[in-house]
Amino acid sequence: MINKYIVFTLVSFLFNQDITVDEIIKKIDFNLNSKNRVIESKMIVHGRRTSRTIEAKNWIIGTNKAFTEYMSPPREAGSKMLKLDDKLLTYSPQTDRIIQISGHMLRQSVMGSDMSYNDIMEDKPLDELYIAKLEGIEYIDERKCYVLFLESKVDGISYPKRREWVDSEYFLPIKEELYAKSGKLLKSTSMDGIKKIKDRWFPSRFLFKDELKKNTKGTEWIIDSIEFDVQIPEILFSKSNLRK
Amino acid sequence: MINFLFKGLLRDKSRSFFPIIIITLIVSIIIFFSGFLNGVYNSLFLNTAILNSGHVKVVTHAYNLEHQLLPNDLALLDVNSLVGKLENKYKEYTWTPRITFAGLLDVPDENGETLSQSPVIGLGIDFLSKKSKQLDIWDLDKKIIKGSLFNKKNQVLLSEKLSNRLQIFSGDIVTFIGATMYGGFTTYNLTVSGVFDLNLGPIDKDMMIIDFSGAQNILDMEDAASEILGYDKKLFFSDNSTVEIRDEFNSQYSDSSDVYRPFMLALRDSNQMGTIVDFSNVIMSIILGLFLIVVTLVLWNMGIMSGLRRYGEIGMRLAIGETKGHVFKSMIVESVIIGFFGSIVGTTLGILLTSYLQKVGIDYSKGIDSLNSSNFAMPNIFYPQVTPDLFYIGFIPGILATVFGTMLAGRAIYKREMAQLFKELET
Lengths: 244, 427
Hints:
The structure holds two protein chains of two kinds. By secondary structure, chain A is an alpha+beta fold.
């Protein structure tokens, strides 16, 4: 008992920790998740030969319902995506078909980006999925960051381990590494352009990089506008709305 | 002297007619057997060439490094221009662009929602353009077991295994789901025009075939292709010539560090094919070599026998004053004449027979059907091949073996004792 107390005191002294890991995780979840939100964004996919910009509008309620409509480029314009719990449905005007994305297709890239359909599906709060521990404190661009290592507490998620560098002021993971169960690095992300929106901090630019893709230059996700806690009609999240 | 020997051969049929017939028969058999082996060798690689590799193929250097992932984002661009250049430079080959891609095939229910899905490997092959020779090369009509070949770019042929698995048949509509060349999400409705069976085991398990223009449309690959395949115009596979043009083509770009530069691969460069080509070359050489040795021994023996048969005649010629050297020389010239004529007639007959069977083929369907339980990809019909080596290969045993046989028998001339000759002639 005395030994445990000494270790805790030493760790607290070394990291100069004035906040617990659980508090850090809760603050991250507060910043990144909301009751509902509407986002207008563009995704710049930096391919090996060319870059493509895809514009989309998303309506999201909690973590279970999301509706996305792609606005451009012309080939993708009018395509829609509906997430209902663990189901993902897509609609493309070219085929006038509603197709359920399932199985190994969920691991495929969304619109050629470095994000997979699974990445879209698994946006639950970290608190529900992981157990975190503090590894230390590092400075990125002269900003103090808590380095957290998270291990999943539920089965079947895409990234059973992740390491996050959490800004000590904004409580956002400004750098993140996502690992397989074996410890292999699968993806890395970073964020910048952090702004205060209402009472939360939110980035205006994310950079995703699929570490399994050779020579990838990553995918930028730029948030043009975001509104939190606005009224979104339930009817938006219906299959019939995909064809409208 | 040659004129004199000719007359002798024409007047004594036992010295010319039968030896020439034997040499003709043996040389014909050699030519046909060699042509047959060439045909078997070619047939064994033809399916691989048609399905995967062409006799040669051009891809980008970057595509080649990741070819197993079917990375169409690294595909060849300006394909029409590149095909034109290849057609001008390598006129003995037929060049055709192809798109190989992967994705999902989604079958809708009556409400248009997903009923079933399956992963699919698609081949976009140029069947519909006017100048394309792909229909002849694939011989697809014989492989379609239900429905018919497509005639529009939004139609598709499915393999029998895929069609049975998804329970879709001619006239049904399926949706392809995949990624464009630029990584975009693509879905496309295709009408099933027919079902094929390549009879090549599990190779076509997840295969669908659409026209090249349809694949370009679906995958946003205007004037682009995964690869450009080259087929010898006679569909004859020659390892040496494919390696030669590969080296010559790639040397043009040896100074370039552009990862998208065109890069040519010979058939032997495809997955593990080099080992199989080398192994087949060795086996074919051993079979042909053993056969040549056997027939050479037969002809050699014939030369010896025909020399020994003339023991009395030689003795007489020596007795009336002809020198041993002159007798030996005249026998050699005679055997050269006989060997030459026999080889010419034998080569002509052998090539005519091989040419005929090259057109009609030798049907092994029943034998191959009995192998259906195995997954070994074998063609049902073998087509013997007339190759340049058939025009001279028969002369090796036809002339040389006959001459060596005569030379061996002729050694006896020098062992004859002049003092004994009259005694021998008296008996």
